[in-house]
Amino acid sequence: MSDLKLENIRKKLIGYDNESGMPFSQYVSRxxxxxxxxxxxxxxxxxxxxxxxxxxxTLDELMFTIELVVHDLENGKCGxxxxxxxxxxxxxxxxxxxxxxxLPVFLTRVPRYIEQVADKEFAQEFxxxxxxxxxxxxxxxxxxxxxxxxxxxxNVIDISNxxxxxxxxxxYNNSHPQGLGIAHYDPTPMTIEIAxxxxxxxxxxxxxxxxxxxxxxxxxxxxxxxxxxxxGQGLAQRVISNCRNINDIGKDTLKKIEVQVEEEIQKQIxxxxxxxxxxxxxxxxxxxxxxHSRGGLDYLRVPQSELQPVRRLIEETGYDISEETLExxxxxxxxxxxxxxxxxxxxxxxxxLEDAYNYYLSELTIARNKDWYIIYGEDExxxxxxxxxxxxxxxxxxxxxxxxxxxxxxINRKALNGKKPVTLNAKEDTSYRMIQRMVSNGEYxxxxxxxxxxxxxxxxxxxxxxxxxxxxxxxDEI
Length: 478
Hints:
The chain is of the alpha+beta class. It folds into four domains: 4-133, no CATH class; 150-241, no CATH class; 255-287; 314-469, Aminopeptidase (3-Layer(aba) Sandwich). 43% of the residues lie in helices and 17% in strands. The protein has 17 helices and 14 strands. It has helices spanning 7-14, 24-31, 37-50, 59-75, 84-99, 103-108, 110-117, 120-133, 164-173, 192-199, 225-231, 235-241, 257-287, 323-336, 352-357, 396-418, 431-440, and strands at 4-5, 56-57, 150-153, 156-158, 204-208, 211-216, 221-223, 314-317, 364-368, 372-378, 383-390, 422-427, 444-454, 457-469. Strands 8-9-10-11-12-14-13 form a seven-stranded mixed sheet, with helices on both faces. Strands 3-4-7 form a three-stranded antiparallel sheet. Helix 3 packs antiparallel against helix 5 (84-99) and helix 9 crosses helix 10 (192-199). The radius of gyration is 26 Å and the shape is globular. Mean pLDDT is 76; it is low at 31-36, 250-257, 288-311 and 473-478.
């Protein structure tokens, strides 16, 4: 999947043609007053996005930055953007959307603009991740098998060998609300059973629960041009290909009785073994919880807690740090560290954070997602990462990537803009290795590296680091 060139979105919106011979910056200045409201808001939105990103971006970089900007728009304040020009644009956009109460409607249109300039693979993956992270969808797991489809002519699919209820459910679950459809939007996925009940009453669908379908299931042929126009070119074909062929439905259940009985016995045995292993692991966790360096850039090996997941990234500074965030950090610390290393458990109010981390409250920021957090302090001289932790789960690699993106996309950019170093105390066999990888990637230069030990334990080697962030790619100014 190739990167996305963000400037292409702006060029598309205002009708810029590379063949015109006029520089894009001059074209923007001359035609700036000709945008309509929607395009004006969308251009401003992407100008804010590009203020924190290079022009060529990966999907991870784009999604992460969009989540930050949406979070800022929801709270009505510009968070991690340091440019005065960007803050002015943010205020204009925020005020316009707030005045019309138009943020949810506005957000539904964002994927359409990405689709116009991205390749199919990028656009498809963006649709899915945008729906889950921004619109709050929790779709059913995508089918893993491709059963194929028959296209009679362009955008006309033969579904005579498909279950119509499965087709309807698939198309519905992969559609996103558009514009005012957000008012009727229900993020709950549709099951085949629900689709069957709906089809008993109707077969023609324009919008359904805020999602554009533009299809008819009355016959054995379905026209999907309207669906693809609103949801992404070729999406209907991909969805229908994941629907089972009627001739294949039920094959997996046609097994001999004795085989089914044997499988059931094996399942019961495995369940009993798993139960005993789980009980043993729980007892072992009570006796000993593993952890890494307290003050360094480490990933903590902590047991999965019962904390409620956070839908997307939360970033809070100073007196805006919420009680919920404090409880999240305290809960992780309580599980991760032995008694003598816990510093958060007795903290009752925000002011006590100053003594805990040796920073004024206004200088402290906590960023977190559903399974990780980063705490850093920023003063006039430097930015110090004072604590970082992540909970182990099946998305561990995604969590590490999100934390890496936050460090590079937020903390490092603050340091670059303020011409400040980034400091931390890193454990040699964990954090220090991560920093060395980032140095190899060209994201840091090590200015100072002072080896030391952790308090009285000479077996734990630490490194007091002073790092210089490196701008990896230059980009044009907006």
